[in-house]
Amino acid sequence: MPPAVPPRRLPRRGRQARSLRSALALSALLVTFAAVPAAAESSDARQGGSAGHCASAGKLKVPGAERQEMSCLAELTTAGTVSSGHTDPADWAGLTPAELATPRGVPGLQIDGYFPDSSATNTNHGWKHDAQFVIRLPDRWNGGLVVAGTPGVREQYANDRAIGDWALSKGYAFASTDKGNTGAAFYRDGKAPGDAIAEWNERVTQLTRAARAVVTQHYHRPPARTLATGMSNGGYLVRWQLENHPELYDGGVDWEGTLWRTDGPNLLDFLPPALRAYPRYAAGGEEAAAAHRQLVAAGYPAGSEFLWPYHHQVYWDLTQRIYREELDPGYDGATEAGTPFCTPGTPACDADYAYATRPREVRAAVAKIALTGRIGRPLITVHGTLDVQLPISRDSDVYAKMVRGAGRGELFRYYRVEGGTHVDSLFDTFPDKLRPLVPCHRSAFTSMETWLDRGKQPPPSRTVPRPPVGEPAAEPAALIARCPLTE
């Protein structure tokens, strides 16, 4: 049995820091370390912006920001910001299909900056300062604002390809935050277990208020609509915001949000069984069939086996160890974030972790970040049926029941997308088995707009089928372009 040490923040200098496996550092979802060049005030001549939108740049102030730097850009989407140095492709690597089209023709203002914070994991712009944000203000504004927190533990530009480009092309102002801490050692932030994740929620609230004020300054009227959206941890943030600060938003679109509940399910109770069972399944032999049954029982659906090797190598082990360290640091004593790919039965191995048996202090840490389902604004959730990072039966299926159980079903729609998985880049490898979720998110977003503008109810909650292989609708280009939510 693992030692039942009460969870507490151990002095970081006294901990034995274990290096993370180099292969895991390449994780597309969890970690990005590259930094964009230092931001600089940009002139019209250098960036090609129009005099009109640059004229007010010096007058804009982000409330509460410790630092802000303004850039007048001819192109706010990644069609221009990659070359101009106003995004970081490493932040959004691996989140979208390679052939996802990039919109262009969106001039406007970009504000980069940070709010006061004591942690320094984010090295973008050479600032070495957390609570970094980006706010983009298109010249051709549709009156709306989209606010997003990042997936995994990525930095503020992580949503640029999947969400920001498209929102800007529709005329929305767009704001995104690094959530106040980044990287695989995010758990070092905060004074007590759960503090680092709790800060994510605070930073999204902070940015939403600040971005609404900046929009009002720039366009001389407040946003007519403010929408929260995001994927994975960003989807969790949408849920939390609509439960706790509905006054700031008109609605939200949640893309496979992480579920945290004090009594489970949460990732600390479905990842350890995967870590125990997968090596026996992969080895074949007499134990393989029993191990397969254990994986399916833990939530990993039959039919998703082709995704298991990659997720075991890249996601499951690292995710379990760093989130367990954030919420239950006492489990492994002085060791920081466990032992990578430890063998079950070794002391304090995360494969043996049993959330249900841990001290009550662990549930107290999870309670800081737990969801209730009591949303106060319309919410649409999309989640792939082949998600093996956050299995749908242990995540959004449960959250949907929570929302309905809280009496908020009239504010909720839920679309289970057949063949969708956690990161759309895997569609490039398995185009005959998967479908990308980015067009499904866009369909959900458009349905939210119609719901708010015209009062037209979105299609009923349902499982969206994947077109059969061989049909034109199942061709890769068609799957990237469309995801109808109706029959």
Would you mind describing this structure in some detail?
- There is one protein chain.
- The chain has 487 residues and is α/β, with parallel strands linked by helices.
- Helix content is 33%, strand content 13%.
- The protein contains 15 helices and twelve strands.
- Strands 2-3-4-6-5-7-8-10-11-12 form a ten-stranded mixed β-sheet, sandwiched between helices.
- Strand 10, helix 12 and strand 11 form a beta-alpha-beta unit.
- The N and C termini lie far apart (51 Å).
- The N terminus is likely disordered.
List the helices and strands and how they pair.
Blueprint: E1 16-17, H1 44-47, H2 51-55, E2 67-73, H3 78-84, H4 89-92, E3 108-114, E4 132-138, E5 144-149, H5 160-169, E6 173-177, H6 195-219, E7 225-231, H7 233-244, E8 251-255, H8 267-283, H9 288-297, H10 308-327, E9 335-336, H11 360-367, E10 379-384, H12 396-405, E11 412-417, H13 426-429, H14 438-454, E12 462-464, H15 476-481
Parallel strand pairs: 1-9, 5-6, 5-7, 7-8, 8-10, 10-11, 11-12
Antiparallel strand pairs: 2-3, 3-4, 4-6
Helix pairs in contact: 8-9, 8-10
Concise summary:
With about 475 residues, the chain is α/β, with parallel strands linked by helices. It has helices at about 45, 50-55, 80-85, 90, 160-170, 195-220, 235-245, 265-285, 290-295, 310-325, 360-365, 395-405, 425-430, 440-455, 475-480; strands spanning about 15, 65-75, 110-115, 130-140, 145-150, 175, 225-230, 250-255, 335, 380-385, 410-415, 460-465. Helix 8 (about 265-285) runs antiparallel to helix 9 and helix 8 packs antiparallel against helix 10 (about 310-325).
